[in-house]
Write a structure and sequence with these properties.
Chain lengths: 239, 239
DNA sequence: TCAAAAGTGTTACGAATACACCCATGC
DNA sequence: GCATGGGTGTATTCGTAACACTTTTGA
């Protein structure tokens, strides 16, 4: 609008923040860093950082994840824009507009601090106390979004390793939603949706050390679920 | 993370872009401006502009809409973040990160150019030729998102005036999806979903000049649809 | 009387639910 | 054997699809 003067407008800092979710020991975990600097030094926060001049928000998200937590070249990392948080005052230092991402991981590799993060840890979802900035809000939004997308997309496979059992897939839904599902019905539903999963022939794996070995499946080619796999309507939730 | 120097990082310009959709004469229309300045002077583009230092993206979106098209104090304007476009090079002048919004309007008030927009017009969706910047992509994303959200939210009422008939609501679905729906079934489905619509007692309105006057409804309090109102699975669409 | 739009009824099919039941493995 | 987890079968219930039919208006 005002032509070409790069400094004609108040400069905005643009950052990315990542809500990295995974399943560990049957519980939803989130990747948090401990901030090494003010503001909020010593507090926990979502990993993230400033965009560099030549990279998109998606690129910056992967870079920051690698720098701050050691997660790089992660196979199967699902990265997806959540929304952008731009309220004035969300960072006390200056005007910061942050593009938030939700990231899903099949396994939970060990992480370590780096860059501006004093340390990095997997923390069970919901036990992290107040986070820095508006990161509690971002984390809640990420959880809501992931829970909703499980219903009508194949997103659940992003929590699973390349080959997985239907029991593992079901535990993804149960963990994220916090509900129990009927195993036979879940199984039929998933197998009846073309492209959701495809069998890996002739393979099986013991899961809990006990029980019948389960057949293995791969993620299929579909991305959306028609019809959707609706979560059971809990009372108290708005219809 | 380099502390407090506002100019330590390359300055990013932050803008908002709006895909404003409405129904006119039974067809989906989008609000486009004609750019008055380079780059893309004379081309059509989505309305939008730069964030100011003291406002959020949502605030900026409403302000730019008023400035560039004369739409201000619009009752029933539904505004919703779409995603943020941050690829380097999407604006030839400098690094611009744009927060895109989808906006839905019940009626289509007359609009006029203003600010940096030479003119503003309602244009039938799909007839606008190539838009400036990556605005074709943004517009497509907005249409996809709205179409998808009709399935599992009450978003359709955002296209309707405060009081509307079920026929009008059905036409929203049919226009956005480009399909025909069975009227009796649509009717039952909508009325069976608590909180979707509520009747306005003792009122009726003629719709097409002919036919039986239709009962009027208001938007209800629900925001999500359980179970969803799925669009008919067209062949060719991925399941 | 006709066309157009709203509204009701009915039947058939398919999906989701809630189970009971069988299979394979480790201990 | 028995506990544990995987896998199959089935009856019932509910939602949807398809379509016939009635009602109320303007022309």
């Amino acid at each position: 609008m005002d032509g070409y003067d790069k400094y004609a407008h108040e400069p905005f800092a643009v950052t990315v923040d990542l809500a990295v979710l995974t399943l560990r020991d049957g519980a939803l975990h989130v990747l948090l860093v401990e901030r090494g600097q003010e503001p909020y030094a010593g507090h926990r926060a979502l990993p993230g950082g400033f965009l560099q001049p030549d990279e998109s928000a998606e690129t910056a998200a992967r870079r920051e994840l690698a720098e701050e937590t050691g997660l790089s070249d992660v196979s199967g990392l699902h990265l997806e824009q959540l929304r952008t948080y731009s309220e004035p005052g969300r960072d006390p230092r200056m005007r910061v507009v942050s593009v938030a991402f939700a990231a899903l991981l099949p396994h939970a590799p060990e992480v370590h601090g780096g860059g501006d993060a004093a340390r990095a840890d997997w923390v069970p979802y919901g036990t992290a106390g107040p986070l820095a900035f508006d990161h509690d809000r971002i984390l809640t939004d990420a959880h809501d979004r992931v829970g909703a997308k499980l219903e009508y997309t194949c997103l659940a496979t992003a929590f699973c390793p390349p080959e997985f059992t239907l029991g593992e897939l079901q535990r993804v839904y149960e963990t994220v939603w916090g509900t129990e599902l009927d195993r036979p019905n879940f199984r039929r539903k998933v197998l009846a949706t073309p492209g959701f999963v495809e069998p890996v022939p002739g393979t099986a794996r013991l899961t809990g050390g006990r029980g019948k070995p389960a057949a293995l499946y791969r993620a299929g080619t579909a991305t959306t679920l028609h019809p959707p796999l609706l979560r059971p309507p809990r009372e108290g939730r708005p219809t």
